[in-house]
Amino acid sequence: MEKFLNALERKFGRYAVPDLIKYVVIIYCAGAVIGLVNPYFYYQYLSLNMNAVFHGQIWRLFTFLLEPSGFSSGSSMGGFLIGIIFFFFQVNLFFLFGRSLEAAWGTFRFNMYIVSGFLFNIIAALILYLSPLHVSNYDSGMQYIYWSMFFAFALMNPDMEFLLYAVLPIKVKWLALLDAVYMVYQIINSLYLGFRTLAQGASVIYTTTAGAYFSIAIAIIVAMANFLIYFFATRQSPRARMQQKRRKRSFERQTNQYANGARHRCAVCGRTELDDDSLDFRYCSKCDGNYEYCSDHLFTHQHVKKFM
């Protein structure tokens, strides 16, 4: 997979879209607007209905990306405002996850992550449609693709802390573990409900309902598979890891390099472990030289390159 991605990047890397997450968020917000105005419009004309696609509605292969985000204008005023607040947090988290992954993986590979998730969902919808269940309408899995970015982000920043409910500090790795458990539960529960519904009868109503449950399970599996493929394919090569370890050993031999005996300092903000003992420092394998960054700037800094 690593060699395949390298070959693709050499051939098509120049076509990669920088800051792709910005356009992903625009599509996500457009879907939210559609959901607020008329959520039925999406499912009637835009969703990934393979039966409609085979009858000429090709646009559905793209417009399914405009899936409504989950809150609607039909909720109570309090519920609607809470939905708006959570939607705002979601958008900001998508920016954080997407830009962090693009900085770590590179623009082309992050583009491929989103594109492959898009294609995998279409393939999954086609398989369900051609199955004995003949599932026409596929519950869009792109929301799960977007959220699967969180797992990659957590693996790269396990000790970063989020404020749960804006009060309780919790490390990202524990949130990712809880999210993974919930995803597994959703898969098992959706498959269970699907098979139980099928056992009740073979009429159109039962098969349609069962198909909806199965499509949810498949969409989550597709998102997790997409994450695992890109995580293992984009880990640092042994050579890069060895270079980073050598730089770290060389640097750590220089004790008391900074003021007051500090041994770590962010090359961007200048903070050390003495300023905040919860800061996590890492070297950047893409920078030329011994440049160390705190967790806040590891994935957002501009790489230092020395040209001959």
From TrEMBL:
Its main location: membrane. This is Uncharacterized protein. It comes from the Bacteria. Signal peptide: none annotated. It is a multi-pass membrane protein. The keyword Membrane applies. It is found in: Membrane. The chain crosses the membrane at residues 20-41, 77-98, 110-132, 144-167, 174-192, 212-233. Keywords: Membrane, Transmembrane, Transmembrane helix.
